[in-house]
TrEMBL record:
It comes from Rarobacter incanus. Pathway: Metabolic intermediate biosynthesis; chorismate biosynthesis; chorismate from D-erythrose 4-phosphate and phosphoenolpyruvate: step 1/7. This is Phospho-2-dehydro-3-deoxyheptonate aldolase. One of its GO terms (molecular function) is 3-deoxy-7-phosphoheptulonate synthase activity. Its EC number is 2.5.1.54. Transmembrane segments: none annotated. It comes from the Bacteria. Phosphoenolpyruvate binds at residues 114, 270-271, 293, 324.
């Protein structure tokens, strides 16, 4: 790779600066911002380009219908909860869901956390008012604090450096769990240990028994299962804060191409996917696999234009569209997009985010979602793909491994009053551990029929 083209790639990374960047914090102190960016620019990458390339290959298999993508984690990670227990619980949930899907559908599952960087949030309103006092809205721990005080809500660029440190530590814990025997498929039962008599757990236990039996049989036949000790686990987040993403972008010494080393996978949110906006421009210049959220107002023209800009070479694995239509709209809007994608020969993989189009306020005032709507959107996503002959490639979820009460319904039938018991999220409601497993069983059934 010549020095000239490496320099050209570096300069190219500045093109977003003249365009409108929505949903950015108003950093009050520009010197603090410059200091934080320069610290990040001098810091080691969180992920290396080769690992992002590996994910791109796996996502190419997803686009072909040879693997299924499972992406999950908090709406907003927090610094306070980046401890080994919480991280372990999330990983265990995703691994259990993956086991259910792999077993049910006989299909490899690409596992990815909304983790190790999901610290910045787009908001509907810049300001929040409580008791007559108006302060900047909480925009995620990488921007400001959740406490409703002047001091805490002031955007602080130093939080990006802290977010970098915590993301690196989180990925370190993830690697320790997924590479150190915890993820060993021969321990499928242990992941369920300590849980109650909920139907999803009983069903999981049956699946685990069958897997155990199959492994014992194959071991007796002489198959070596050492490869099952570890799993590949990728991380991704919404590439919202352009100061952070730009400062962590590095030129890959192998190819001379830029990679955003803050995560393997970056996605562009529904609120920042304008074709002429700074987010689409910046991400079009990095070589990571990318996602774009597509909400119910997306037109086929918007979608094709995004693919032309972000994946002009139609490279399988480069682009994943994440449809978040809402249960009431998925059957009406998605067919037009899939027809156009098919007609234009787009290479994109398709995932469903059945969370963000189904947000409601409960009568007790909680921001919540109905588990039945979440399920219905997933079913609709599969129905539409089946009707058009395209590939339903994955699931993008807001979930946690903990026993929270944030989403209405599920086998434990969390009701309006029940939400108050353990409503812990700072932004959007997440499926709890057992609701996540219930959903995995449904998707496994859908995949068999797909
Ligand atoms: O996670 C998605 C958005 O950031 C979130 O739903 C916005 O929430 P708000 O409408 O409460 O600002
Ligand atoms: C902000 C999010 O979603 P969307 O961009 O789809 O609204 C999110 O995934 O938390
Ligand atoms: Mn969210």
């Amino acid at each position: 790779m010549s020095i000239d083209s490496t320099l050209a790639n570096r300069n190219d990374l500045e093109s977003f600066r003249s365009l409108e960047a929505r949903q950015q914090p108003t950093w009050p102190d520009k010197d603090e911002l410059a200091r934080a960016c320069s610290t990040l620019r001098a810091s080691a990458p969180i992920v290396v380009p080769a690992a992002a390339d590996k994910l791109r290959e796996r996502l190419a298999a997803v686009a072909r219908g040879e693997a299924f993508l499972l992406q999950g984690g908090d709406c907003a990670e927090t610094f306070a909860e980046a401890d080994a227990n919480r991280i372990g619980n999330k990983i265990r949930t995703i691994l259990q869901m993956a086991v259910v899907l792999t077993h049910g559908a006989s299909m490899p599952v690409v596992k990815m956390g909304r983790m190790a960087g999901q610290f910045a949030k787009p908001r509907s309103s810049d300001m929040e008012t409580r008791g007559g006092i108006e302060l900047p809205a909480y925009r995620g721990d990488m921007v400001n604090g959740f406490d409703f005080t002047d001091e805490s809500r002031r955007p602080d660029p130093g939080r990006m450096v802290e977010g970098y440190r915590i993301s690196s530590a989180t990925l370190n814990v993830i690697s320790a769990f997924t590479g150190g025997g915890f993820a060993d498929l021969r321990r499928v039962h242990e992941w369920n240990a300590g849980f109650l008599k909920n139907p999803a757990y009983k069903r999981y236990e049956r699946t685990a028994k069958e897997i155990d039996r199959a492994i014992r049989f194959m071991t007796a036949c002489g198959v070596d299962f050492e490869a099952l000790r570890t799993v590949d686990f990728f991380v991704g987040h919404e590439a919202l804060l352009l100061d952070y993403e730009h400062s962590l972008t590095r030129i890959d010494s192998r190819s001379g191409r830029p990679y955003d080393t803050s995560a393997h996978f970056l996605w562009i949110g529904e609120r920042t996917r304008q074709l002429d906006g700074a987010h689409v421009e910046f991400l079009s210049k990095v070589s990571n696999p990318l996602g774009v959220k597509l909400g119910p107002t997306t037109t086929p023209q918007d979608m094709v234009a995004l693919a032309d800009k972000l994946d002009p070479a139609r490279e399988p694995g480069r682009l994943t569209f994440i449809a978040r239509m809402g249960a009431s709209k998925v059957r009406e809007v998605l067919p037009h997009l899939l027809e156009a994608a098919k007609r234009e020969g787009l290479a994109a993989a398709w995932a469903t985010d059945p969370m963000h189009g189904n947000t409601i306020t409960s009568s007790s005032g909680f921001k919540t979602r109905r588990f039945s709507d979440v399920m219905d959107e997933v079913v609709g996503f599969f129905e539409v793909h089946r009707a058009i002959g395209t590939v339903p490639g994955g699931l993008h979820m807001e979930l946690t491994g903990d026993d929270v009460t944030e989403v209405l319904g599920g086998a434990e039938e969390i009701d309006d009053a029940g939400l108050a018991e353990r409503y812990e999220t700072l932004v959007d409601p997440r499926l709890n551990h057992q609701q996540s497993l219930e959903l995995a069983f449904l998707v496994a059934e859908m995949l068999v029929g797909a």
